[in-house]
């Protein structure tokens, strides 16, 4: 087994995760099988209980692991399936060592950071690196390890020491260190400054780790004299000083690395030049150019409560992007703060209220993502009501599905007080209830998590057609509440159709409104399994329906399509699926350009 370690210096947020993922893509293109490990030095055992404001979205794996969002980048870039053990945290390491101490495994020894914690870290890396993640039986050839945080952080010190020891454990030719650092440009003089990187490398060497390559983040390509200076003061060969300058989108980064022959430097350090081929990135090169041909846009209103932090919905954004580019459309995301849609905002902040409703009404589709808590719930319900009444394509994910059911029960069944017990534990007519197997005393790891099977109940429903007319699908879950089974017959009699259920038939997984062009809610999180070139079927359906609505609106402006009260009254515009039973047909590839409202800035997303 060969190991590539990616560390970061100077400041956080340099893009270590994207760099690690891109290195994986490059090595995979050389014919190697690649796995990944992310080390997070925080004391939490996992990311499950952390606020999105603290750490972005919580990414969910097939085995139910709640992990750092960087593992989502690894899965999307490399098209692999990781496990919860691929995310190492300080909490997990200390917990495992303390459990051993309580069992007496250390035979009376004084348990210390060195060697017990450091040994536990090294053992964990070696064990997890050998677990296949690409569907094959044999271990991967290379494990790419990303150390979170910044060199010098107190909390990461045990990992630095462990990795220093680990480089000697695996021996020469089996370990390559890539240090990602910042080369800032001072506006006053316009000169690229190397001193921060010099200090970062000096500190790294002082901790027992010597970088093989320097990956330097900068706004523009490094000047030759700057590269020479870094090579001289950081004791790194000039050919191994790599520029990671700003690019139009991050799909260019693997190509940027290839152009600088980073693969050769890594393979030389790992003594693998003789067993690999030249990187074949033909499809990747094609993919980077796809977005240039995407001129016709599609607008999706994202109605949530973390609209000021795009990382909170990172996988949803990527799934939308995969689906939009697969259909040849440029994605525009209109962030709609759910609370701004509520009536109380019209009194407290009329401008915000007006702006939110203008964004919602100007979109070609509405998406209500998952979430927790009651803030903004009434606004989400109003968004679902608007989409249902105006035949605007709607996709509700997890809470978004529950929101759609609540709105329908209130508006159609006349149950004005119905809600979820999450928002009102004493509700008399809840149409969403706490799952009986859930824990009300512990939050971490107590939800219904991971890959679960959903069986289609209606063979010709929209969702089944999008998934290729299969009888069941496996998707990832993360929820504590479910639609009240006691209200299903009442809801279905009024027009809702619960077309997907779990293996017991009592837990609702997919809901549709057959009379609507596209109105679908799913209890699972399809965004976690979306891949570039292989977008999630339900996201493909939303984008296709949104494109059709836009076409109808534009045609109406030229007198070709009849609108009633400004509302499109067409039938479902989608559902031309593969007949091979797999997925919605797409074009080849995707890209990273997402245009977002709010600040007028073009934001580049990740894969």
TrEMBL record:
Keywords annotated in UniProt: ATP-binding, Glutamine amidotransferase, Ligase, Nucleotide-binding, Pyrimidine biosynthesis
The reply on keyword Nucleotide-binding is yes
Quote one Gene Ontology molecular function term. Answer: ATP binding
This protein's record includes keyword Transferase: no
A Pfam short name: CTP_synth_N
**Which reactions does this protein catalyse?**
UTP + L-glutamine + ATP + H2O = CTP + L-glutamate + ADP + phosphate + 2 H(+)
Top-level taxon of origin = Eukaryota
Q: Where is the Glutamine amidotransferase domain?
A: 310-543
InterPro entries in UniProt: Class_I_gatase-like, CTP_synthase, CTP_synthase_N, GATASE, GATase1_CTP_Synthase, P-loop_NTPase
* Residue ranges constituting the CTP synthase N-terminal domain according to the UniProt record: 2-272
Pathway participation: Pyrimidine metabolism; CTP biosynthesis via de novo pathway; CTP from UDP: step 2/2
Biological processes annotated in GO: 'de novo' CTP biosynthetic process; pyrimidine nucleobase biosynthetic process
Classification via SUPFAM superfamilies: Class I glutamine amidotransferase-like, P-loop containing nucleoside triphosphate hydrolases
Enzyme Commission identifier(s):
6.3.4.2
What does this chain do? Catalyzes the ATP-dependent amination of UTP to CTP with either L-glutamine or ammonia as the source of nitrogen.
Family (UniProt):
Belongs to the CTP synthase family.
Its recorded name reads CTP synthase
- Organism in which the protein naturally occurs: Lupinus angustifolius (Narrow-leaved blue lupine)
